[in-house]
Amino acid sequence: MDTPRIAILGPGRLGQVLARRWCEAGLPLLGFLGRDPERARAAVAFAGGGRVLDVAALRGADVVLVAVQDDRLPAVVAEVVAESKGVCGGLWVHGSGSHDLDVLEPARRGGARVGSLHPACALPTPEVGYASLPGQPAVLLARPDDPRTAAELVQLATAAGLRPVPAGGSDRLLYHTACVLAANGLTALYSVVADLLQRAAPGAALVEVGDALMRGALDGCVRHGAAAALSGPVVRGDAALVARQVARLDCSDPSAAAVYRSLMKRAVELAAGRGELAGQALAAVQGALAGSDDSASEGGPWPK
User: Fold this and answer.
1) CATH number for the domain whose boundaries are 6-170
2) What are the pLDDT digits (tens) for 165-223?
3) What residue segments make up the domains of the chain, in order of their start?
4) 3-state class of 142 per DSSP?
5) Cα dist. 89→99, 178, 228, 244 in Å?
6) E strands in the chain
7) What is the pTM of this model?
């Protein structure tokens, strides 16, 4: 598959970003098929190639990328295959991280080979996604008995500037849940941190403190693992400080307090797992997170 003709089902962010990268790599783009012709035309303009397609045009494609929302994917595949009278060909690929290959079974029964290519990167807009795509991982999934599809998925990922990561036999829902926490969870946490820093010192440029701490913590996790990278009052066993912080957030921002409790409970597990939080100190920190009245006076060991 040197220069496959590509059709994209769904003119959303993922389809637009991949289409533009593939066009720039010299792969022929047939165009986009979508419920809204105006959105399909806008996708064609962003990609820089192709045209608005109908279902019949999919038969001329070597690759059909199904790039629709996860909850619509099964119905869209079934509907399009039915409109094609059950006759499919080439390679059908979905871009969902949460679905396995069963969702493409109607296309497979119609004669298509099936696979999945999920770029593991944030695509908040087509422009941002296009700029950030190169070098990001693309998690690939093919049937174990289909090495041809596995090789073609690698070619498609590479042509888009992505780094292929084969992931046969993975728990797709668990995988995608982790992706959501990694991207959206971190974004939500950044929002909480930035808001607290702004309220702590209105007008001061304290947001850069949060930036530096989050970047440093993530770098430490990547280099040394989460447990080894952990620092702060929990791993020191400073239950009094933890209790004061919980009380402050409970009074001023219950939503942030819930985030703090949830994340610090995980920090307790990490600290206990590396053997630096045990016995009375462990119980005191757990009590502080639970809101026990006596935990603020318990204290913990002096920091090393």
Assistant:
1) 3.40.50.720
2) 998 778 999 999 999 999 999 999 999 999 999 999 998 788 899 999 999 999 999 99
3) 6-170, 175-298
4) strand
5) 21, 33, 50, 64
6) 6-9, 29-33, 51-52, 63-66, 91-94, 113-119, 137-142, 163-166
7) 0.86
